[in-house]
Amino acid sequence: MDFLRPASWQEALAAKAEHPAAVPIAGGTDVMVEINFDHRRPEHLLDLNRIADLYEWEVGEESVRLGASVPYTQIMENLRAELPGLALASRTVASPQIRNRGGVGGNLGTASPAGDAHPALLAAGAEVEVESVRGSRRIPIDAFFTGVKRNALAADELIKWVHIAKADGPQQFSKVGTRNAMVIAVCAFGLALHPATRTVRTGIGSAAPTPVRAKAAEEFLNAALEEGGFWDNGRIVPPSVAAQFAQLCSGACNPIDDVRGTAGYRRHAVGVVARRTLAWTWESYRGARRVTEGAA
Ligand SMILES: Cc1cc2nc3c(=O)[nH]c(=O)nc-3n(C[C@H](O)[C@H](O)[C@H](O)COP(=O)(O)OP(=O)(O)OC[C@H]3O[C@@H](n4cnc5c(N)ncnc54)[C@H](O)[C@@H]3O)c2cc1C
């Protein structure tokens, strides 16, 4: 196995163009497991660890530009205010050691339906910027996951940045597992309220072949919140609306039975965490409104 060690992004792109089957390695927390278990024996490993750009982030007016290799620990420590959903999801990944190495670029590269960053990225509305020697393009997160552990990257492309809209309202992430730490999700759910556009967005993990949004649930809730004037009056979301939202979220799942849980359990659990995260985020929204009104 040859180990390619580009010192710059341009060298990395050139190496990937020359060896399209080369496997990029960032934190290595997925790649090394596959190699150790002999699930993969690539001819070339493309080490991205010397490329400083991939470890940087920039907070802009409306969005955050997150380098592909920024570790989860940095997201938790530095981007909690801008990306609360992703920061919460990052806290649930594995252990401190893995969170110090692994990042969102690797999570997207693996594209597991159980990747914890994915529901948060779907709910926030992210774009993945990929590049090759042919140029760069931005892939909306909704179009990124193309199958079980498959993504929209071409063979010569690398992930450079993930662009994520800064939170304009409360966000939540909830993960169901068999224990609290070091656990792959049985299912996971991300919810983001977007008061600026009076919309909600969702993300479901580990309950379909790919991470998915519950679009029918979003449309239902958007209409119900609008009709009841809830964004303006800040009243509690009626239990019947929350229940219908939860049911539609369950309906968006297309799970399998596996060692971690049955399909039926996953559908049920997604409904439960959908309702819970709606209650949490809506309560935060109401709280923020009260503070704003009190100050006025
Ligand atoms: C003990 C353990 C526990 C874990 N627990 C969790 C968990 O709770 N939740 C969770 O979501 N994950 C978990 N994981 C999986 C893993 O930590 C995450 O998927 C992590 O985000 C991977 O990031 P990385 O930088 O280590 O990726 P790597 O292992 O370096 O790479 C992963 C994949 O992405 C590709 N890749 C990496 N960077 C790029 C790039 N810039 N462009 C294109 N492709 C790229 C690689 O080629 C590879 O296919 C766990 C892993 C271990 C070993």
TrEMBL record:
Keywords: FAD, Flavoprotein, Oxidoreductase. It comes from the Bacteria. PROSITE patterns: FAD_PCMH. The keyword Kinase does not apply. Residues 1-169 form the FAD-binding PCMH-type domain. Coiled coil: none annotated. Gene3D superfamilies: 3.30.465.10, CO dehydrogenase flavoprotein, C-terminal domain, Uridine Diphospho-n-acetylenolpyruvylglucosamine Reductase, domain 2. PANTHER family: XANTHINE DEHYDROGENASE SUBUNIT C-RELATED (PTHR42659). This is FAD binding domain-containing protein. It comes from Streptomyces spinosisporus.
